[in-house]
Design brief:
247 residues, mainly alpha, 2 domains, 10 helices, rod-shaped
């Protein structure tokens, strides 16, 4: 799935301005001739003066341009900012505990280039977390897809939680692939990706080590066995043991 980026009014106005300027510059050489024709056309109404109507047209154009710019900056820019802030508040509200997966997917599709980074990250975190509780294989497949999409799009705004959720999703995938009897190379690749995701999550936020360890250790007394066993398939893996049991 690709994130939908809808052009906003400011972008459209920029495009139109560039098009108008480009087309206008190509016709600039004809401007003196056309102004001369305009002056001659209105000349009888201005005591046979062709200069005055040209000056009126030029001054009106300049005044209209700056008046429009000032009014736009004073009123329209403020209105657009208020609308964007309201939209961002609505999008942020989608990250609350009660938001369902379908609602969060709609929120992700509504992300635009000017959406604040923290809102985008919160949306993806909640969506990936919700996907982990959907039925396999669709649940973990979507969680992996969303996590990798965010990591690819936001390398400078990394989320430790997204890396942790990716590790959990890969653990679910490993268990599923094992039950289905898939090839060892597929299992090995999934295992290596899960280990790397754990390492990246802990590197970004060391406090997440306890959460990941709980998902990994079947004997952890704080877990709900039926729901928090994502990384248990790697319990006897030496690399995971070194990661979670080491200092």
């Amino acid at each position: 799935m690709k994130t939908a980026i809808t052009p906003n009014l400011e972008q459209v106005s920029d495009w139109l301005t560039k098009i108008i300027l480009g087309a206008g510059l190509t016709q600039l050489v004809r401007l003196p001739y056309q102004l001369g024709r305009l002056g001659e056309y209105f000349k009888p109404e201005f005591e046979n003066s062709s200069v005055l109507p040209v000056l009126i047209v030029l001054s009106s154009f300049i005044f209209g341009f700056f008046a429009g710019y000032v009014l736009t900056q004073l009123f329209l820019a403020t209105a657009l900012k208020a609308a964007a802030d309201a939209r961002n508040k609505i999008v942020l509200a989608l990250t609350t505990e009660g938001a369902g997966t379908a609602t969060l997917v709609a929120g992700v599709k509504a992300i635009r280039s000017d959406t604040p980074k923290e809102i985008k990250r919160a949306l993806y975190e909640r969506l990936i977390y919700n996907s982990l509780y959907d039925d396999p294989p669709g649940g973990f497949s979507k969680a992996i897809e969303y996590a990798e999409q965010y990591i690819r799009e936001e390398p400078e705004n990394a989320s430790a939680r997204i890396w942790a959720y990716l590790a959990a999703a890969l653990g679910q995938k490993y268990k599923w692939e094992t039950i289905k009897g898939n090839r060892q190379e597929i299992l090995a690749e999934t295992r290596n990706r899960a280990l790397e995701a754990c390492r990246r999550a802990i590197q970004l936020e060391p406090q997440l080590k306890s959460l990941l360890r709980m998902l990994w250790d079947p004997n952890d007394p704080t877990k709900f066995q039926s729901e928090e066993d994502d990384l248990e398939p790697f319990y006897n893996d030496s690399d995971f043991c070194a990661l979670f049991e080491g200092s």
